[in-house]
Specification:
26% helix, 27% strand, single chain, 293 residues, five-stranded antiparallel β-sheet
Length: 293
């Protein structure tokens, strides 16, 4: 049983279909029936017998012909024209709407406009005007900043293509606690993605860091070492090292501070330290609230 994974649009999640009656491979174009309607899509993944669960999967409608490709290219041109029409009509009706993308279904039975706005928008008259122009079903979808970023794309601070428009099918749940677990800077500008929400990649290695950190003390804990008791001022989770600060008192001298690193199993917690405080706590709270929206 052969299964293929396709994407009608680059910002779509991969969708899977049975393909028994046609010989296709990665890179082929096919026509498929999606929840939105009939669409033109490119094959990105190919599974052979037993490699993918086939339960509930629909069959591919057909392999795309030259005529299908021509029609698809015409639809792409019409999408560009529709973007201009949308912007002009939004000004005409004085609606504060930012157009993100336009989607023509393959058979042109429906046009979907994706937009963002500060609040709810009454676009009933606006839709009627568009429907009179195109004589097809019109759908307007208000999307959030995460979906906007996924559609627009971009490069992350890592220098690679954004995860949301390359490797992720669904948005994962990231939290400030994940950044703390990985000893990352709690500066909101450094742990936020292009969308202004917490970076999706905070979730990738969090489980591993959490497992390691369970065996290590926390910053500000008081620990006992071979050099006496000191305060933990830093953790290197990957190397399982603990940085400890000691205050040494010399006769007739001012107290001096000594900092030394130990392996995690060379220290023992004797007193839990106070919770770490952040100067930008208010900003972090706002960021976490936005992330949940």
């Amino acid at each position: 049983m052969k299964v293929i994974g396709v994407k009608p649009k680059k910002y779509d999640n991969i969708q899977y279909y049975l393909c028994e009656d046609y010989r296709v491979t990665v890179g082929y174009n096919v026509i498929v029936e999606t929840p939105l309607g009939l669409e033109f899509a490119k094959v990105l993944v190919l599974y052979r017998n037993g490699e993918k669960n086939t339960e509930g999967l629909n069959e591919v409608v057909r392999v795309a012909s030259f005529a299908d490709l021509t029609r698809h290219n015409q639809n792409l041109e019409r999408e560009e024209e529709a973007k201009k029409t949308f912007v002009e009509n939004a000004k005409k009706f004085k609606l504060e709407m930012k157009l993100i993308n336009v989607r023509f279904l393959f058979d042109a039975s429906k046009i979907i406009f994706y937009f963002t706005a500060e609040g709810r928008v009454d676009f009933r008259e606006f839709v009627k005007d568009l429907a009179m122009k195109y004589r097809v079903r019109i759908e307007l979808r208000q999307i959030g900043v995460r979906d906007e970023t996924k559609m627009v794309g971009g490069i992350g601070i890592c220098g690679r293509k954004l995860c949301c428009c390359s490797v992720l099918d669904d948005f994962k749940g990231s939290s400030i606690n994940m950044a703390k677990e990985q000893n990352l800077s709690l500066n909101p500008t450094k742990i936020s993605g292009s969308c202004g929400r917490l970076m999706c990649c905070l979730e990738y290695e969090n489980e591993g860091y959490a497992e390691i950190n369970r065996t290590l003390p926390r910053v500000y804990d008081i620990v006992k070492t071979e050099d006496g008791e000191g305060t933990v001022i830093g953790i290197n989770s990957l190397k399982k090292l603990v940085k400890v600060s000691f205050i040494k008192h010399q006769k007739d001298d001012e107290p001096t501070t000594l900092v030394k690193e130990f392996k995690g199993d060379e220290v023992k917690v004797v007193k839990k330290g106070a919770a770490q405080t952040e100067e930008n706590l208010d900003e972090l709270k706002k960021l976490e609230d936005k992330n949940e929206q």
